[in-house]
Design brief:
The structure is a single chain. With 61 residues, the chain is mainly α. It has helices at 2-13, 24-27, 31-60.
Length: 61
């Protein structure tokens, strides 16, 4: 919720500058999209790895 409030305030008021990113529907897949998709996939992988390690540790104790 906090991120949405910040982002929408940033986009609508241009207080900190203008938001110049366009949606994928307009630009197609670009490097910005690829980087953030990779960040998401790596984060998701690390989350599931940590969750599995936590479950195994709980089962052993």
């Amino acid at each position: 919720m906090v991120a949405d409030i910040f982002n929408f305030s940033y986009w609508w008021t241009d207080i900190a500058g203008s938001f110049d990113k366009r949606p994928i529907a307009e630009t197609g897949i670009d490097s910005h999209f690829v980087v953030w998709t990779l960040v998401f996939v790596v984060s998701l992988t690390l989350f599931f790895w940590a969750a599995r390690k936590t479950r195994v540790a709980r089962e052993q104790s």
